[in-house]
Input
Amino acid sequence: MKPQLLALIHLSEESKAAIGSAFEIIYAPTAETRAAAITGAAKDVRVVLTNGSTGLTAAEMDTLGKLELACALGAGYENIDSAHAATRGIKIATGAGTNDDCVADHAMGLVLAIMRNIRQLDLSCREGIWRDALVLPPQLAGKRLGVAGLGTIGKKIARRAAAFDMDIGYFNRSRRDDVDYAYFGSTEQLAAWCDVLVIATPGGAATRHLVGARELKALGPKGFLVNISRGSVVDTAALAAALGKGELGGAGLDVYESEPQPPRELLEFKNVVLTPHMAGWSPEAITASITKFLRNAEAHFAAIG
Output
C-alpha cells in the first residue's frame, strides 16, 4: 500500500502522475482544501509536500500525527516550522539545487528588462514612436551589479553578470573565500556602490525588509532593484515612495509582499517590471525538483526500514 502524501502546492498533471507512482496523494493547494484535508482526510499522511512560502505550521504538524517528512519543492523552507519539526522528529528536505540556473536566468532577464527599458520600448514601438523621441537606456557593460546574498543562486547571477562585463560586488552574512568580488558589510553599503542591486537572500524573519528606505536612497535615482528571493525582503511601501519621488531608476520584481495578488502600490509605475513568482519555474526545473523530492522520500523510507 502506498504511503499517503499531502500536497499543499500546485502541481501539474505530469507532476501528480510522477508522485502518484509512489504515493497516494491528497491534493490540497488552496487554503480551504488545506484546512479541510489536515483536519480530515490527511490523518494518515506520512509526507507533506510544500514550499518555502506555503510552509507548514507547528499546529498543522501536531494535527498530522503520523507525519514523518516535510519536503519543500524549492530551496527555501522559511515558513516550515523547522524547530517544531525537530521536537516531533519530523525530517525536513528541500529541493536545493534544482532551479538555481532558472532563477539566475530570470534575474538577469529582469536586469536587462529594467535597465534597457524593454517593456516601455516595446510599447513605444507598437505605438509608432521611433528612437529619436525616447530617452536612451544605459548599457550593462561597465556597470556595477551588487548581489545581496551570495549563495549558490547569487553566485550564478554574479557569473552571468560578469559575462555582460559588469563589475560585481556582494553583501553576505560573512565574506566568502571562494570569490574575488568586492565585499560590503551591509546592504546599504552595497546599494551605495552598485548600479543595480539584485536580492538573492533567503526569506524569513531575519531578512524581512532588508531593503527599505535607507537602502533605496543609497541606490539612488539612477539605480535599479531586482528581487528574485522573497517578497518580504523588500519594503513595498518604501519602494513605492522612492519610485513616486523619482528616487529610484526602476525595479524588476518576481516576488512581492502581496502575492499572489499583485503589488497594487507599484502598478502605476512604468519603470517597474513584474513577474508572478516565476523565476524558479521551468519545465527543466520542475522535473528536477520532482525527481529530487522522490529521491529524498525514497531515502527517508529506506533509512527507517
Remarks:
- The mean pLDDT is 96.
